[in-house]
Design a protein that fits this description.
This protein is an alpha/beta fold. The chain has helices at 2-5, 20-30, 49-56, 72-85, 102-107, 128-135, 170-193, and strands at 9-14, 36-43, 61-63, 90-93, 112-116, 139-146, 156-163, 197-200, 203-206. The chain has one domain: Formyl transferase, N-terminal domain (Rossmann fold). The chain has seven helices and nine strands. A seven-stranded mixed beta sheet has the order 3-2-1-4-5-6-7. The chain has a two-stranded antiparallel ribbon with strand order 8-9. It binds 5-O-phosphono-beta-D-ribofuranosylamine.
Amino acid sequence: MSSFLSGLKRIAVFASGFGSNLQALIDSQNKNYFNGKIVLVFSNNESAYAIQRAKNSNIKTECFLLSDFNSRSDFDKKIIYMLKENNIDLIVLAGYMLLLGEEVIKQYRYKILNIHPALLPAFKGTHGIKDAFDYGVKVTGVTVHFVDEGLDTGPIILQEPVIIEDNDTLETLEEKIHKVEHKMYPYAVKLFCENRLLVEGRRVKIVDVNKPID
Ligand code: GRF
């Protein structure tokens, strides 16, 4: 397979919604920013705009719902089948609103990335930006981490702070967070594709950390 020969990592992006992070990844890929290729976009939501973004860029899409299956285990089997069939090396969760099944995580340990719009372990869950804003913290941020069996608990790869100013509204904070996400996620993918992420227990070391980001 040509992608194997060229060392390109074959990437599947899982997205359930708007897909702005998917778009940032597609744009980075188009600039050859990382040594990988998004070969598949999967969604559990037929009307996700992420699916449209993938189609606009001629990326293969798959869409099926948990409710299409008799059990969670059948759904997970189908996910694993899809990943194997497409020779996926890296799964990138980009606003995927369903916890991955344990078997998927086991088979792709340290090959699944997630982005969270807060500084983990603070403000886990689906409303990281709003929860941080409502709590009144002065600093929040973005985290990219490997996925493990917990909710937003896997080893942390990258974090970047975002200051909440007095005049910020939830909307301006969301904008700031997304701006950081759209730079950070492609960078995390780049690090993965260059085999520069070394997991030691809970700690993820970045090999050649001083190498320029580009
Ligand atoms: C992002 O804020 C991400 O951190 C979170 O879900 C959101 C997805 O946004 N996991 P989008 O669909 O990529 O625009």
